[in-house]
Amino acid sequence: MLPVVIGLSLAMTGCSSDLQVAPEAYRGPALSQETLNKSYLVVAETPGAGWAIEIDATRKSADGTDVYLTLRRPNPVGAYAADPVEQRVLTRVSTERPLRLFARVANYGSDDEQVYKRVR
């Protein structure tokens, strides 16, 4: 496994109120959550280098806080190591509230509006 890449996300409350969630479960690279200094970290295990993870929006709900993520596939022009890579992105979501993750996978450079799926 390649070294851990740590990113910081401001976990902004997104401007878009029309986030769409599909009923089926998320089936992309593995996602999990950890804690750091009373905030949640989202951990993505991508199949190789070149992938990117972005927090698109954060929403408070009756059940806790929902975080919406996009994982982007690598640029197809590049050459990347095929070794699994673990990426971590820090949210500003307090561990005092439950966290629910919703994610989607997009191609490099794509602005397609794909729906999010619940990470189980």
Would you mind describing this structure in some detail?
There is one protein chain. This protein has 120 residues and is mostly beta strands. It has one domain. Helices cover 0% and strands 53% of the residues. The strands form two sheets. The chain has a five-stranded mixed sheet with strand order 2-9-8-6-5, with no helix packed on it. The chain has a four-stranded mixed sheet with strand order 1-7-4-3, with no helix packed on it. Strand 3 and strand 4 form a beta hairpin. It is globular, with a radius of gyration of 14 Å. The two termini are 24 Å apart.
The number of distinct β-strands equals 9
Relative helix content:
under 10%
H/I helix tally: 0
Radius of gyration: 14 Å
Tertiary shape: globular
Spatial arrangement of strands, main beta sheet: 2-9-8-6-5
Question: How much beta, percentage-wise?
Answer: over 45%
Mean pLDDT: 87
Distance between the termini: 24 Å
Overall number of domains:
1
Unreliable segments of 5+ consecutive residues? 1-16
Largest sheet descriptor: 5 strands, mixed
What are the secondary-structure elements, in order, as H or E?
Answer: EEEEEEEEE
What structural category do the secondary elements indicate? Answer: mainly beta
